[in-house]
């Protein structure tokens, strides 16, 4: 049952792992004494009881030590969420500005199609990097996986609209419609990227 027990990995959990090993050792001692053919030895039983009391003391001590650390973990997680929100708020503002820049390019007189398309591609590349930054921030902040999946889905929807913007055969009204879709997606992005304050 316990043949593949990785003691070093268990000790890696600190006091909690050490307490677990003490409890396990107590179990092994009692089982070994029970498996003997002769009567249980009173001295050994007495020593096991003492060891068991020490183990209980260690478990209780571990609980008292871990409780303040648990509260610190909650504060740390709260700080990480606030940093994540601040970062993502800045990025979503940048994304909204990029969308406005795309709209300006759509309404620019068509003097040089290639330079306009290159400028659009540059903005779209910035948008994709910004979305990847939001995803990375949410991952670091240990956010709900569902939020990260929603960011990925938004990125795919935005990519469809970017194709419309970059297509030289698409007329101005279709491009404006695609840009309006991007603005709507930006609102969804902000809602997903920034965790609600508790």
Throw out a few tags for this protein.
198 residues, mainly alpha, 6 helices, 0% strand
What does this structure look like?
It is a single chain. 82% of the residues lie in helices and 0% in strands. With 198 residues, the protein is mostly helical. α3 packs antiparallel against α6. The protein is rod-shaped, with a radius of gyration of 30 Å. The model has no long low-confidence stretch (mean pLDDT 82).
Radius of gyration: 30 Å
Q: What's the end-to-end separation, in Å? A: 45 Å
What coarse outline follows from CA principal-axis ratios? Answer: rod-shaped
Q: Would you tell me the structural class of the helices and strands?
A: mainly alpha
Could you give the count of β-strands?
A: 0
Major beta sheet summary: none
**Uncertain residue ranges:** none
Distinct helical segment count: 6
Helix and strand element order:
HHHHHH
**Estimated helix fraction:** over 70%
Q: How much beta, percentage-wise?
A: under 5%
Mean pLDDT: 82
Please summarize what this structure is:
With 198 residues, this protein is mainly alpha-helical. The chain is built from 6 helices and no strands.
Helix-strand blueprint:
Elements: H1 7-11, H2 15-34, H3 42-107, H4 113-140, H5 145-166, H6 172-193
